[in-house]
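tl;dr need the bound structure. longer version: we got a ligand (flavin mononucleotide) that a collaborator sent over and nobodys looked at where it sits. i said id run it. heres the input, straight from their email, havent touched it
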Amino acid sequence: MMDHSNAHRFSVAPMMAVTDRYFRYLFRQLSRRSKLYTEMYVDKTLLHQQDNLHNFLSHRAAEGPLAVQLGGNDPDTLAEAAEMCEQWAFSEINLNCGCPSSKVSDRCFGARLMLDPERVREITYGMIRKVTRTPVTVKCRIGVDDKDSYDELTTFVRAVKAAGIDHVVVHARKCLLKGLSTSANRTIPPLRYDVVHRLAQEFPELEIVLNGGIDSLGAVNEHITGTGEWGEYGGGVAGVMVGRAAYFDPWTFRHTDSAVFGSSDPGFTRREIMERCVDRFTEMMQEGRREGPECNRTRHLCLGTVTKPLGYLSSGARGSRTFRQELSRAVQAQSKIDPDTDDFRDAVDRAMALLPEGVLDEPVGDTPECAFGSQVRDD
Ligand SMILES: Cc1cc2nc3c(=O)[nH]c(=O)nc-3n(C[C@H](O)[C@H](O)[C@H](O)COP(=O)(O)O)c2cc1C
């Protein structure tokens, strides 16, 4: 049985159209211990798609620790959706209070919820009461629009704490609901790590996880151990969540298990990971076709969906662009595939042939010393 303790130390952020089952499987070949998040699912979508939940929520125990993220603003429907998710055995249910997308914030959920801490207290209280075995957590920003003072942030954090939340992921940037696009809201407002470290110091009873702009294991460990330069708040945070860097350069995180958790790394080469992905993705597509409802039976047959997560496994390495271009060319030539044929495997084989053997078979390399001093051990 995999040890899920301390999984909060390193997590991969929920990302729409990225952290689907395919990407998560790929990342699992690099780290068994990290906590992974699903994409955000809107509560009402899940409630209206009861006959199609396999497509959203299905996963194997080996995919864990896996948290599901919910979006919404209605205490009743969120509690109902949380109860439903609990039946699918996620290790955590997370409420999105950080998404600035106008599609989301016009409906008053995502980051807009931070403007109404009382409502979030009510929502999270209702979710916690409905689920008995699964921790409920919150992901938020450090502020929204002009409500960006430290006091306003702590009012929000106190409200969710009063509801019984003890784990808060904080994206270390405020967001602007008007005037900045969703992607600009991930780059333009400055990162304020000091604010998140202060929160961790002043709320030691909470697990405060820092998110935003982290792109190396060295940085992850600096934040956890509190050895970086974060102003006067040096105690460290409970964990770090990484988003874009894990997607655009997953190989960088191949030593997560040893460096952050003190256990052994899976140790697969890129070639082994790609081969495992081709096998498992094919199975997933076949399962999706069997178990999904009639109207959705083609959903998992899009070649782009299954090649997308593989595209960045060789980021930064020689041949990486040509490899990605070949995958895109294959998708343009044939967007739909039949999972009972070798179409997907052939497309990946053709692209892999363009990567140098030194890249495909590069050893994972030495296990770095764990920043926490634990011995590397096999789980
Ligand atoms: C493509 C994309 C989709 C995202 N979707 C979500 C989402 O569904 N829920 C959420 O809470 N945050 C979402 N985010 C924000 C990330 O979870 C994360 O907070 C943000 O990217 C900052 O972390 P990073 O700098 O490590 O990428 C998304 C980010 C990206 C790039």
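gonna send this back to them w/ a short note. Confidence is low (pLDDT under 50) at residues 294-298.
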